[in-house]
Amino acid sequence: MKYGYHYCDTNINLLHDTLNALNGSSNLVNQTKLDIDLLVVTGDTVRHNSDPNIPLTVDEILQTSQFVMRKLKESLPKSIILPAVGNNDLFIHDILDKGPNANLKGLYESYELLTGFSDYKDTFLKGGYYTYQTKNMNLIVLNTNYFVLANSIHADCGRGTPGHHQLTYLKDQIASAKSRHQAVFIAGHHSASKYVWKIDCLEKFKETVNSTIVSGMLFGHAHTDRFLSSKKMATQFLNPSILPQHQPAFRIYDIDVKGHIKNYIQYCANLEESNQLGIVKYKTQYSAIDYFEIPDLSRKHMHQWNN
Ligand SMILES: [Zn+2]
User: Fold this and answer.
1) What's 12-306's CATH class?
2) pTM of the model as a whole
3) Where's the Calcineurin-like phosphoesterase domain (predicted)?
4) Sign, CA torsion 37/179/192/46
């Protein structure tokens, strides 16, 4: 099958033709020409290690990461591309010790292929996190591997742990954005939930991001279309994946110059139909403000809708 099967990793045809849909060289069904200023890749560019006959190696992890970054750069030469570290991008699945280390260095060398990524060298080598800034907005890309239960090297986010260092960085970045009257977005791999995160890290994270200047949070990992809304935090938007666990999909967010989330449009392809036709056809699946019937995707409106 040209585009693969459900529950398999994304194959080269699906990656290639999805990037063509993103850059407009292959028309989406509704003929929309997408205009992408900034692409957030929420992690896991490397395949799952689920085939006992072809065990994943460190070389393959680094080669895949470099290959995907090159493809992204070639396909979207004008877009800012910001990758987050996923648990599948680690040399040992789910496990990452404090930086600097060989895993972060290897990932840095592949992300460095992206234009402008060398600006983030210092914090990325320390812990896989960094901040992209515009005049009005700060997008803080976190390395959530330090917060999750599956990474068993550190039990919590206590002093001296890489989770604690990252939370201190996050706190400083938010305080600094606040003093400049700028908005903050947070992106990362694992969404903040008691089922996935260490309780201590989750509680400290909630305290740290409990500021109205945090406009929204973008996460991946779960392959599902969800959002998590709470009074204490900005909404967590979980995007579906290109990996066709369900149907391959991506989102285009509309964020205004002040950093407020106005809307997102989700595009989805039907894997069976794409395999039959021999061409992947992404269609508009829904517009968030039309689906939720709210004026924008601010914390207030998302929370009102959820209750
Ligand atoms: Zn993951």
Assistant:
1) alpha beta
2) 0.96
3) 32-224
4) positive
